[in-house]
Amino acid sequence: MNGGLNQRPDLVLFDMDGLILDSEQLFMEQERIVGRQYGYDMTTENYISTIGTAGDTLRKILADLYGEDYPMEAISRESRERVNRIIEEQGPPVKPGIGAFMEALHRHGIPFCICTSTDTATATHYMDMAGFLPYLQFLIGGEQVKRSKPDPDIFLQACSKAGVLPERCLVIEDSPNGIRAALAAGMQVIAIPDLVPVPEELKDRVTAEVVSAEQIPALMDLN
């Protein structure tokens, strides 16, 4: 832990994949299988560069990596279908401390929402399966904004929707792209790294970096 909140937030904004759900590794594995069927070698390094992105931002990254003819929609759709089948069979892989943290926020009357690059319908279904949906103020999926993370649009849209100033918000993120988006929005951010460490140039800019959500209630004085 390397920082502290300067105020209790009026809104907490969660990422989903790699933060609420231990799903990035799962999606990467399934995308690698599907990509191989299309003749593409999906390396871990390449996948990591796409984490947190969607839409045109993701399309540009993939075109730079694999060429303009890379079939993004087909590979993404088939990968998501494989992931969906696994989650339907095994349940959503919720990361440690997330449920208790959300319960603490709810108990203290601090509203929270989800801002994810995953499409709204899929994310809503996952959160419903996990039992979190009734506690959310709202959920914004990646297709609802023109520019995905690392641009701040999705977080600023959440502020507008909630009627809260950016400086009164706290973002919980795992990916460098998500952290950059939160900082660009002028928000405090707590980092819980998943597949990628917090880059050195961002370490001094995050409010705190923790190993898991289990540490956040004490940091926010919610115990």
Tell me what you see in this structure.
- The chain has helices spanning 24-37, 44-50, 55-66, 72-90, 98-107, 120-130, 153-162, 176-184, 200-203, 216-219; strands at residues 11-14, 112-115, 139-140, 169-173, 188-191, 208-209.
- The protein folds into two domains: 11-22 and 93-219, Rossmann fold (3-Layer(aba) Sandwich); 24-90, DNA polymerase, domain 1 (Orthogonal Bundle).
- The mean pLDDT is 95.
- Helix 1 crosses helix 4 (72-90).
- A six-stranded parallel sheet has the order 3-2-1-4-5-6, with helices on both faces.
- The protein is globular, with a radius of gyration of 17 Å.
- Strand 4, helix 8 and strand 5 (188-191) form a beta-alpha-beta unit.
- The protein has 223 residues and is an alpha/beta fold.
